[in-house]
Design a protein that fits this description.
The chain has 11 helices and 9 strands. It is of the alpha/beta class and 335 residues long. The protein folds into 2 domains: 187 residues, Rossmann fold (3-Layer(aba) Sandwich); 110 residues, Adenine-specific Methyltransferase, domain 2, CATH 1.10.1020. It has a 7-stranded mixed sheet with strand order 3-2-1-4-5-9-8, with helices on both faces.
Length: 335
Amino acid sequence: MARPFLKWAGGKRQLMKELEKLFPKELKDGEEIRYAEPFVGGGAMLFELLGNDKYNISEVFISDTNGPLIMAYTAIKKDLDGVKKHLNNYQEEYDAWNDSSDSYDKRKAWYFHLRDGKFWELTSTRKDTEKIEDEDCELAALVILFNKLGFNGIFRMNRKGKFNVPPSNLVNKTFYKENELNKVHDALQKVKEIEYGDYESCNDFVKEQSQSITFVYFDPPYLPLNPTSFTSYSNSKRDFSTELAHQELAKFANELDNVKNVKIMISNSDINFTINDDGIHEYKEKDDEGYNNFFDTNFSNSFKIHPVLARRSINRNGAGRGKIGELVIVNYSTD
């Protein structure tokens, strides 16, 4: 079974069992389903659906506003050997310092040289996902490399589109496992469209075959629980630290809800997170002052809100990697 080839903030692997309980009945029953995932990120949901025989996925659309990420998916799908070639070359350079007494200093200098040089050059110029060139394979290899070597597995782009994550401890590491990347390549052959773009780019794919069931999963950067929450992993035109961006996403979901045979699932933070006296996560529709929860007021009545508990695995403070309330919002019955 293919597994995500990147560690990704907000990834859903640890929450998958809870999400599966809320899948559309048609998906759980093995009916043929089309699948769309904007905000694909590390692709935990994508690879769960493509790699599990109990799901019958006919064709897939994925997109993201993180250009290097989308190029990595595209290159792995279309030219895996080219990606491996560059990974192996960089692995050889990195391993040259395995037994060096000053390996950290040398690897740190090498890391910044690649990050601010070749990686920035490639992210600035490589945009075309239709025709894959050798430079695109190198960019994909660097995405995997920096995800492995960067601090805490974070892949963060600033507003200028520049990757700005510092290095981790840079101990001896293997950048990839060949058999696992082979499985990713095989799984991605079912992906019809890989697009660099906002979530609205899925619109045509979702609407083009209304006679077939299309399952759409939105996993945006979450509405922050506090002012210090980190929500930006690309140079997207939308700022998901604001309610406005989430209101716009809710409006788009409401529009898709009017399309026949479209099943929608959305993940987000539970801004009214609470645990009752029995230790059970509850979702408060209103706070003590009668304030309606943000998500109640922005989605149509077709949508139902389900609270779940998730484990936060990427946080600069280890003490912050505990359980946290999340919401799963769907436009179909889960009975």
